[in-house]
Amino acid sequence: MQGWLDFARGPLFRFCFLLMVLGLLRAFAFSAAGLLRAHRRAGDRDVPWRRLVADTVSWLAPVGRLWRSRPLYSTISVVWHAGLILVPLFLAAHVTLFRNSAGFAWFALPQPAADVLTWLTVLGSFALFAGRVGDRNARSLSRRQDYLWPLLIAVPFISGALCSQAPLSPAAYQALMLVHLLSGNLVLVLIPFTKVAHCVLLPLSQLVSGVGWKFPAGAGDRVAATLGKPPTPVVDLKPSAGHEPTHEPVREEMTA
Amino acid sequence: MDRVRRLKTVLWFLTGVAAAVGAVRFITGLGVTTNLSDSHPWGFWIGFDVMGGVALAAGGFVITAIVYVFKREQFHPIVKPAVLTAFLGYIAVILGLLFDLGLPWNIWHMIIYWNPHSPLFEVGWCVMLYTAVLLLEFSPVPLEPFSAWARIRRFLIRYRIVLVVLGIGLSTLHQSSLGSLFLIMPYKVHALWYTPILPILFFISAVMLGLYIVTWESKFTAWAYRRQEDTDLVAMLQGSARWVALVYIAVRFGDLAVRGELAAAFAPGPHTWLFWAEIVLMAALPFALSLSRRVLRSTSGQWAIASTGVFGVVFNRVNVGGLAHVGGGAETYVPNWTEFVISAGVVSFVALVFLFIVEHFRVWAQRPADPAADPEALPEFEPVSQVSLGGPAHAARVRNSMAFIIAAAVGFALMPFERVERQGLRELAVKPALGGDTLFVDGNRDGYGVFFRHQFHVEKQGGRQSCANCHHMNLPGDRNSECSACHREMYRTSDAFRHQWHASPEGGNVACADCHDLGKPKSAGSVFADRRDCDGCHPKLAHDHKWIEVERYGAVASYADAMHGLCVECHRRELEAAAAASPEDQATASESVTEVNGGQDRRELTLCTTCHRGETLRQLRPDVMPGRETPAGVVRTQANLTPWNRRASRQEKDDG
User: Residue A168: closest CA among chain B residues belongs to which residue?
Assistant: First the structure.
């Protein structure tokens, strides 16, 4: 058993970790190259940088934007994401492991905070899964990985929490630790090849709509006009007054 | 293009493994990532990457000489690929050398700090200059599409003969000087390879390999790109190569005969096998095969001749570069897998550059069709998710980058990081001391230990009450456990507590919560106060009168440090006490110390020989420590003892 643990903690972890890092770099490079190509070919190359950056930053904390339509969902999602990022990176045990192998590390969360955040993340996983299954609209939009990810995320969190907090027998500890290591490694290796790649693609995701919206020139405005929506790629909750008149000519042009 | 496509994916994979392994090599150094050592600083990289690489690049000067000097115009179609291969070969040599150099950032030193007596200096300069010459020789090809460079291109073509002659001169110099490098090591290179005419043998085999590699490359690219094979040209080149092979065999065996080492070629041993494998592969087999006209003109025959010849000469370079170096019984060198992987990666990377150049420039009369430019190419799909990858060019990028990153992750996973953790210190389990009243303390069993008069120390320190002075801790259920019970590593600290063993179900079966406060992060800091040392669970492990306090159970001193710490420290204190006492006491103390030690003054603690007196157990009890037999019957130093290397022993006899 110790041999399996050493394998999962050593070579297997190194494989999964480096594949994650390189895979994310690759995903980012391909996305950026594709965007660049699209931008080069676009009829209208004027990219609204200021708005794109502002949108990207504001979507990092979606509570403000989604608060009116889905307050519960947005709260759970933000807490869940916070736990997902903070606990694996700043858990004292992980920091120690990293320091012992690489020779350097960073600060750690206080143990009680990490424990609470861990269980909040587990609860969040189940809540998000239930929300996705329970809502008809969400169901119709979901792929297989959308259901599997919250559940998969919960596995290393539950097993890790039990290992660190429960008074287990050595045999149970080793078994749970192996589950923790294997599921954690699986998460790492799947990140760049599934939707979780959004963790590095996020800065590009607003750019995609920003560029695509204007490809070909004026297309976005025409679509917006046809739908009777404000002329921005992203839903703006506070529509600026006076956008209607600017679109009258476009509509005319289309009908003509 | 299917073959090239697959080939490229494989090459990207190999480059990926090498990229990860190479990165670790540059971060952590040579000692932990390779099997190279101070006694074997030159190994597979020098043999294959540098000496094999330079020899593999010999096609450049051989073919340019044939075409531009001897005016054999029928070989003109293979000049450009031969020069390209040579240029990329030298790039591979330089890349490989950067991996091998301990301080690669000093590679420019030879330009400024001259050592004109060194063959390595000559090789360095020649390689540098010849790489530049090859670049100039080849650059008309990539410059062809750019009209802005047309004048420079015309200039290079007009004065090509100067470059060709320079290339031949530089090649002759350094192809042979690579052999001269080893003239400095008569005691290290085996007698079957070591000869004063090593440079001449290197030059002849370089010419031979130059002919073989050009034919091999022609065959290989014809296969990969499904091009028309140039059987006549290959047959002509291989036909000439056989005469070079014959000359090589004659010179090699003639030299062995003149030096009186011919019998060594039939002496049993691994080097005999290396020698014959090399002779058969590099010269005998290609020569025998190319005698038959039918074999010489058949595709499979040409493949066999080119492949054995190329493999054989490179094998010869690897032998001279490392494998034929004598270990003398002290240490043998077998390359680590990391060394093979990095060499394969360098070759793969260069091969990718080669494929890129032949696909984008007019190296051959007809450029191979670019699959990305095919307007009728169908989009490709990812095999698992069936997602469209777009056209062939983008699909190739997706596939090759995937191969690269998976390979890099595999290489990183397989790296021997436990060697890095040891920081080069060898793991060496300690063996307990031997004997009874007098102990022979020789933890690493190299035969050079210290005789420790145990019974004498017991009596001097006050009989059985004094055990605890030195035996400060015991194993559970044991009394006076030996030093090696806890100090288990010769040169590294060892874990006397054995945390992993205590926590495993098969071992101590102790749960985390038994010792650690689970409300805190698990570390030494969260252990309950009454569990901080062994006495918390095992009563009476430590003696009451102990002199030594254990500070960290998880990292106790190495055996060597523990032994030196105990003996030296105790004797030092004793002498300080004597010095502080009256002059009479001092004299008595000194006298008694000198007397009991057979006239040797043990106060000279800074001298190793005070305790390590060169007595070995092997000397006293050959049955206990069977060692290497030597004519004198006494083991002296480990160096210079290569009894089967007859040159060395002959030298010894001369000296004697």
Answer: B511
